[in-house]
Specification:
Elements: H1 2-9, E1 14-18, E2 21-27, E3 31-33, E4 39-41, E5 50-60, E6 64-70, H2 73-79, E7 91-94, H3 102-108, E8 116-121, E9 140-151
Antiparallel strand pairs: 1-2, 2-8, 3-4, 5-6, 5-7, 5-9, 8-9
């Protein structure tokens, strides 16, 4: 289902596949220019870095369908998602192995600051055979992600 969705909707887009995750790059700049025109390389996410992001998580049937979590107010309001104590600030985590579900982790690695992407993966890389809150067991998932910042691990 995921592959046919990607082929029909994103055939001209860049798709990065990694360990069961497919990431569609919606917007990515690895280099920007400062006010003097000098190139500045944006940080690329690696294990041990601090990641700050906005996200919208969907159950994936034949397309992203049911929104189950977000920290983007406009997305929640548009979907009619009633969150208890909503937090519309960027999610900030130390990005390391096992901190996130595998599908999301595999899709995020290598992302750049200011990147916008859609990450899709099967239940095997999500919550598997367990129902998780409103997410039915064996559900494929889709996350739309906006990377707010990548803070490199101090060496």
């Amino acid at each position: 289902r995921i592959d046919s969705y990607l082929e029909s909707r994103f055939k001209d887009s860049t798709i990065v596949r990694n360990c069961g995750s497919s990431k569609v790059i919606m917007q990515r700049d690895s280099v920007i220019r400062d006010s003097l025109g000098r190139e500045i390389l944006l940080p690329k996410l690696e294990y041990g870095d601090t990641l700050s992001l906005y996200y919208a998580g969907y159950v994936f049937t034949s397309s992203p369908s049911t929104l189950f979590a977000t920290n983007v107010k406009e997305v929640a309001e548009k979907a009619g998602l009633d969150l208890v104590n909503p937090d519309y600030n960027p999610l900030k985590i130390c990005f390391d192995r096992g901190v996130l579900i595998p599908g999301l982790e595999n899709g995020l690695i290598g992302s750049y600051k200011m990147e916008h992407s859609i990450i899709l993966f099967s239940a095997e890389y999500g919550f598997g055979n367990k129902q998780q809150y409103s997410i039915p067991k064996l559900s494929a998932l889709s996350y739309e992600v906006w990377i707010d910042d990548v803070i490199k691990k101090v060496q």
